[in-house]
Amino acid sequence: MTIMIDTGNRIAAKAAVMAKPEVVAAYPITPQTTLVEAIAEYVARGEYKGEYICVESEHSAMSACIGASAAGSRTFTATSSQGLLLMHEMLHWAALARLPVVMCNVNRVVGPGWNIWVDENDSISQRDTGWIQFYCSSNQEIFDTVIHAFKLAEHEKVVLPVMVNLNAFILSHTSMPAEIPDQNVVDNYLEKYIPKWKLDIDNPTTFGNIIGPAHYYRVRRAMQDAQLNAKKLIPQIAKEWMKLSGYFHGDLLEYYKCDGAEYILLSMGAIGAESKIAIDELQKAGQKIGLARVRVIRPFPVEDIIKLGKQADLVVIDRNISVGLEGALFTEVKAALYGQSDAKATGFIAGLGGKDVTYKDIETMCMKSMKGKVKEQELYGMEE
Q1: Is 200 among the domain residues?
Q2: For residues 51-69, b (16+ Cβ closer than 10 Å) or e, as one string?
């Protein structure tokens, strides 16, 4: 095992290469560019032996991944923001075709106006495509989750594409240490990908043909069942990885100082990491509040949210907005709590467009909620 001190993008690239995909389809977009550039460097040094395809757009990148995966290859790509949106049609295609493509998405504002900093509206807008979605809060978690993603996507009870999200610049361009296991550890964890079906000229089959109303619902039901299977498998595959690597990032939520809490903060991504400092400071001041960082939004951890809602009042921070309603995580938390008469949730939208969200800001939001000064959800930091 070695220590790699590097950016989130380059650590994601390292994980992808160590997973040994047969095909990587790449197109640059800030702030994801350095991720696929890093893979290109592995190609140039002869350290990556797969097929590296430089395409002319993100739509083509996902199309190439679909073709490669359908032909039986382990595949990987990466994108961000407008690039993810350009893939939208093909994201549906990959999921409905049950292709275990793995993709890193660097969360970046969707324009116009043009902005290369972070919020999560790009990936949140793709929730309904059928992709499993992870949200990371450290470079170590990025590495581990990319490795997990291949294991999960290719599992016979899942067979769905997986998106690993990391916040622009806060993670993508910040150097932090990550422990990198030896290649044989990854090889032992990720067995060679053997697809249950593939396009094969020697064994031809009809694929992707017309499905009438009498049968189409079965496709959607199978995807739903696969997502629910993933909910159970995510902790299991993480525990398998921990036995080999020593690192565990595996529950649908990461719990921090929740024992005895009367309030629990829910947040995702880099805000989730910053929230730990806020929780430390609030507990020092005598506040009974803990943190549950949401790692996975698809499949959504409904049962875990219900348990938290029975234990404590919930405070939700979203770094996205479903315009015309509220933050997406807040909406989903409330949906999970529907019918739980004693559950209470309030929340905030903060950090849109890359606006900094410090632990002091998080403390302020928590205190406002605990004092009953928030009716339901507030746009925080918009006073000016």
Answers
A1: yes
A2: ebbebeebbbbbbbbbbbb
Range of the structural domain that residue 31 is part of: 2-245
One domain, residues 104 and 12: yes
Strands 289-294, 263-267: pairing is parallel
- Is residue 233 located within the same domain as residue 263? no
How many domains does the chain divide into?
A: 2
The encoded tokens of residue 224 equal 């739903």
Distance CA 243, CA 240 (A): 5
| Residue pair 377/327 in contact by the 8 Å Cβ criterion | yes
Tokens 């109303």 belong to residue:
213
| Token pair of 381 as six digits | 């930091």
Does the pTM exceed 0.85?
Answer: yes
* 272 neighbors 254 (Cβ within 8 angstroms): yes
Give one word for 312, left, alpha or beta, with left for phi > 0 and alpha for psi -120 to 50.
beta
Task: Pick the last residue of a domain from 220, 245, 270.
Answer: 245
The tens digit of pLDDT for each residue in 234-252 reads: 999 999 999 998 877 779 9
Contact 17, 39 (CB under 8 A): yes
Q: How far apart are CA 339 and CA 383, in angstroms?
A: 34
Residue 56 and residue 86 in contact, taking contact as beta carbons nearer than 8 Å: no
Q: Which CATH number does the domain housing residue 167 bear?
A: 3.40.50.970
In 3D space, the residue among 327, 317, 315, 261 whose CA is nearest the CA of residue 289 turns out to be 261
Residue 264: give its domain's CATH number.
3.40.50.920
Q: Which residues of the chain have pLDDT under 50?
A: 384
